[in-house]
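Q: Given only this backbone (314 positions), what sequence would you predict?
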């Protein structure tokens, strides 16, 4: 139970990666300003979180089961919070999907949207009415730089992030009238176990339905370039957690928050040309015409970008 003066923070997707580090970072706040409710679908996967939380577990951090894809689970989780009072809701739960779109079934696409879009909407719908009654609250949605700029072979994942960006941009206007803030956190590549495993798996997979050229472009062109970018520009889950903490502690939190300053010029390409040609042609040339140059550039960037620069956030 939260102590007087503590803000109640509910976070989805806390079994690993970014969600785990956000939960631990807030639970270990030196001033003990937060009572963290960390959620995950399967509490059998709580061990990493409990270990990382240390003494904070059972004091400033508690666990609840939650499946964002289930109406009943969402309602039961929020009902288990005292007075349904949540000061800060952090929607972090998400899934990825990578590969040639011809080889991805519609059912797989729906699963991505069920978590990344409808899961977030389901949670916001449940916490928002109580925040409106209190005329107070902060909703933080973990989006992605791919919610601002499309990335080849990430078509479905990108679409799910574009969808939640559009939804939240629309909601933010209404919520301001109720004194509720809405913020998007938009990381670029982040080093997590999930990302590493996904990269390893997709390199070995077969892609029925996709032609040989497309598979070759994906495996021999896109994947090596993606790995270069991850190594040169990737942040850690701790970087993202620290960035988010700054956002929720700001007196005037921004709506959009890119966590990696190295991505700012990449996103700016899109808004520099209303026809869209500049960004599309730039990414085409970088991937298919200047691949070796891009590899060298990323290698140099990796050498130049020390850990202190990689930690630069908003």
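A: Predicted residues:
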């Amino acid at each position: 139970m939260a102590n007087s003066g503590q803000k109640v923070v509910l976070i989805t997707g806390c079994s690993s990666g970014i969600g785990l580090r956000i939960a631990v970072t807030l639970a270990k706040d030196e001033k003990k300003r937060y009572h963290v409710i960390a959620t995950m679908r399967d509490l059998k996967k709580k061990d990493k979180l409990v270990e990382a939380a240390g003494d904070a577990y059972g004091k400033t951090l508690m666990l609840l089961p939650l499946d964002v894809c289930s109406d009943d689970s969402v309602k039961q989780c929020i009902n288990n919070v005292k007075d349904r009072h949540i000061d800060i809701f952090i929607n972090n739960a998400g899934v990825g999907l990578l590969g040639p779109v011809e080889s991805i079934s519609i059912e797989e696409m729906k699963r991505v949207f069920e978590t990344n879009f409808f899961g977030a909407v389901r949670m916001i719908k449940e916490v928002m009415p109580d925040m409106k009654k209190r005329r107070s609250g902060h909703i933080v949605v973990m989006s992605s730089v791919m919610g601002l700029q499309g990335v080849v072979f990430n078509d479905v994942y990108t679409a799910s992030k574009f969808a939640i960006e559009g939804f939240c941009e629309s909601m933010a206007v209404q919520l301001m009238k109720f004194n509720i803030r809405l913020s998007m956190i938009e990381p670029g590549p982040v080093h997590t176990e999930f990302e590493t495993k996904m990269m390893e798996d997709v390199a070995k997979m077969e892609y029925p339905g996709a032609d040989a050229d497309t598979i070759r472009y994906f495996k021999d062109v896109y994947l090596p370039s993606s790995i270069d970018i991850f190594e040169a520009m990737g942040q850690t889950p701790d970087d993202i957690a620290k960035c988010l903490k700054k956002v929720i502690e700001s007196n005037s939190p921004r709506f959009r928050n890119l966590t990696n300053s190295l991505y700012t010029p990449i996103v700016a390409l899109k808004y520099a040309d209303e026809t869209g040609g500049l960004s599309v042609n730039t990414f085409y040339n970088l991937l298919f015409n200047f691949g070796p140059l891009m590899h060298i550039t990323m290698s140099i960037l990796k050498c130049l970008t020390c850990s202190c620069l990689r930690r630069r956030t908003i």
